[in-house]
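This part of the workshop introduces the protein records we will be handling. A learned vocabulary of local backbone shapes supplies the integers on the structure line. Getting from the letters to the tokens is the skill we practise here. As an example, a complete record with its sequence and its structure tokens follows.
=====
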Amino acid sequence: MKNQIFNGEAFLITGIADEHSLAMYVAKEIIANGGNVVCTGLGVSSLHKDLSEKATAFLNKNYKDFQNAVKKELGNVETAILDVSLDASIEAFAQSMVEKGIKINGFLHAIAMDKTIRQKEVKPLLEVTKDEFCDTMEISAYSLIRIAHYLMKYNVLQQGSSICSLSYIAAAKVTFHPYRNISIAKAALERITIELADELGRKNGTRVNVIRFSPYMGSKAGNATLHESDLEISGEVSPLGNALPMDLAHEVIHLFRPNSRITGEIRHVDGGYNIMG
């Protein structure tokens, strides 16, 4: 039996859409190292008002797929609905953790959304509407602030916790796979990471870091934006080839490790892709 890093500490895992989601690999590795997880997915709640039939059907299917994937891969772990576009949903989730007596020692922010990407086609930035821009920024970046806010407001996030978010190299560079709108949101996410690392580190010793990962098509999100040729190119360009989901999971576990002094970092788990011109 390997030495376990965690001693029953619980971590919030967002962003699981299916069994191949990067967040799922992280959740499994936390459990393998002696930790517990609370997993959240997008679904219909009492806080959703005036939803269309189409929206209701989408959210119901999304949550069913989420729950099925979690049960298959993780077993009977705590799950909950979380819609980060609604402050009331985030607050209700934090309150439910209090009611259940669950304390969180950190969380993975793996949430992103961009309606300007359709059928692997990316809308030019000059054609992105204000609503499209703001919606992407709210879900993909600002939500990190609000999750941390409510978890701290209700004393769910414990002193010395660790927060980690997922990003990619397009937050800093124009890439051959043409992310546009979402890249700006990821750049904001990285800047938020640095500011929160300062604020939360001084407030209660919480660490905040972000990881830029290789292009990945295994998840719904990656498959919506990338082509097989994109992975082939990045794999050839990267000195070590594309990183694997378990490489990411191991790095998150390292950053979640108790009593670390690592914070405010933009880490690269990409086989060296980031060093190439």
